[in-house]
Amino acid sequence: MNPETTSLLQIRDLHLATTGLMPKQLLNGISLDINPGETLCLVGESGSGKSLTSLSIMGLLPQRELAVTSGTISLDGENLLNASAKRLRQLRATRMAMIFQEPMTALNPVMTVGEQLDEVLAIHTSLGRSERRRRVIAALDDVHLPDPERLAQRFPHQLSGGQRQRIMIAMALALEPKLLIADEPTTALDVTTQAQILKLIKELQERHGTAVLFITHDMGVVADIADRVLVMRKGSPVEEGAARMVISEPKETYTRELLAAIPTLRPRPATTSHKTVPALSVARLCKTFSSGRHTVNALKDVSITLHAGRTLGIVGESGSGKSTLARCIMGLEEATSGTIRIDGADMSTANAETRRLQAARLQMVFQDPNRSLNPRRTVMQSVTEGAINFGTSRSAAMEKAGRLIEMVGLPAASLERYPHQFSGGQRQRIALARALMMDPEVIVADEAVSALDVSVQAQVLDLLESLQQRFGLAILFITHDLRVAARLCDDIVVMQRGVAVEAGPAESVLVQPQSDYTRSLLDAVPGKTLDQVTSFWANVIRQEQTAEVTPVP
Description:
Blueprint: H1 3-6, E1 9-18, E2 25-34, E3 39-43, H2 50-58, E4 66-75, E5 78-79, H3 85-94, E6 96-99, H4 103-106, H5 113-124, H6 129-142, H7 148-151, H8 161-173, E7 179-183, H9 191-208, E8 211-216, H10 219-225, E9 228-233, E10 236-242, H11 243-248, H12 253-260, E11 280-291, E12 294-306, E13 311-315, H13 322-330, E14 337-342, E15 345-346, H14 352-359, E16 362-365, H15 369-372, H16 379-389, H17 394-407, H18 424-436, E17 442-446, H19 454-471, E18 474-479, H20 482-488, E19 491-496, E20 499-505, H21 506-509, H22 516-523, H23 531-549
C-alpha cells in the first residue's frame, strides 16, 4: 500500500514554533498518514506536542503566537496550510471534525444541546427547519442517548460527563466528516463510560468509514482501539508502527517507559497498621439532596474504616457517591444522618472548637490543583496559609514549607513562584505539600491523579506511598481507575448509586469480586491484556536502573 496515494490525511515534516524575536521550536519533523477507516493513536506525555499537531490540522492555532515554519498537511489531497480562513471553516465539520477533552468548555452553556446541533446543520447545509430537527434527533439517537426528543431540550450542565461527550461526538459526526480527531475524549470519564464512548467511536467509524486520529496518554486505550501508533516526546516523533508491534516489541526506551508506568490490575501487598483505633471511621452515613419534589439519595448507609498507614480506595462510576462521601467527611457537606469519627472522636457530638481542631487532622487533595491553588498567590503563600491560620508563626511556617517542598521533590526556589509556572504534576506536588503543612492523620485524595499522564501519575503515586510510610498517613483515595486502585490501595469499597455494594481487601475485591457491578467495572478496564507487557518492561527498567547505581568492584 502506497500512503502517498491512499492516505486521507498526510502530514510531512511538520515544524511549528512560537512567533516573536526568540522563537521556540515546539514541533520537530512530525510525519504521519491515516487511511479511511483507520485509527492512528498519538501517544506521549503532556507537552509532547499531540494537541498542537491536531490544532495544526484543524487550523485552530493562535496565529499571533504560533506558526507552522515548514512542512505540509494534506486532507484528501488538499493542502490545509494554504487554505484560507473561509475554506477552513467550510472544511470543519464537513470534511474534518474534532472532539475535545472537556466537553463542558466546548459546549455553549446558554444554548440547549439541540440548538447547538441545529446550528451546525444551519451553517453548513441548506436544510429547512423541520428537516434539521429530524437530523438532530437522528444524530442524538445515533450516539445511543436515551429519549433524544427530551434530551435535545436540555442544557449541557443538566447532562452527565458521558452524555456531554456523546453530544460532542454527535456534533462532530453530524455531517459525516472523513476525518475525526479525538483529543483525550475519555480521560475524565469512569471506566464503564469510557468503554461505551470507545465502542461508540469504533461503531460510527465502521459505519461511515471515518479515519480517526485519537490523542491519548493511556496505553490501555491504545491497545484496545489503535491500528497504528505514533509515540511523541517533546515535539518530536519517537516511534511509529502497528499498535500490536509497538506495544509488544517497543524499540525505543521512552516507549518502554510509558508501558512500564501503567499500573497493573494485580493488587500490591497490603500494609499493616499497628493502631487499634481507626484514624477515620464512618457508620451508616446518609446524604439526601432535595429540590422541590425531586429527591436524590446520594449516600445510603455507607460505612467505612480506615487505619493509620493504610490506603482505602473508593471506586465506582460518576454519580456513585464517591465525591459526596469525601465532602461529607471533610465537612464540606452536612450528612443527613450517620456518624463520622476522627481518631475515635465523634464529630457530630463534638463542640465547635473540637471539630475545628479535629478537622485540621484531615486534609484534602483535589483532582485539579490548578483550581485549588490561588493563581494570585505564590506557592509559599498557598502552602503556609492554613498553618498560619491555625496559630503557627509566619517564620516557622515558612521554614516548614521549605522542608516540605523539597520533600515532595521540588526545589526550595519554587516557593517564590506562582501556580501557572508549574506543570500539572508539579502543581499536584505543591497541593500535597500544602496538605502536609497541617500534620494531618488522614489525607482525602479525590481523583488526585486522574488528569495526569501515566508517567507523571506514577511519580505522584510513588510520592504518596513514600509520604505515607514516612508520616504514617491514612489515605482515603477516590478514583474511577481500577489500575490506580490496585497500585495504591490496601482495601477497596465499591460504590454504586450511593450504596457500598462490595468492600474488602484489594486482593479480594479485584481478584475475586463478588458483586456483578464490580465485575462489570473490571471488564470495562481498557487494555486488560497489557498487564504482562507492563510488568515485563517495569522489571527490565528496574534492573537497568539498579545496574546503573551498583558500584563496580
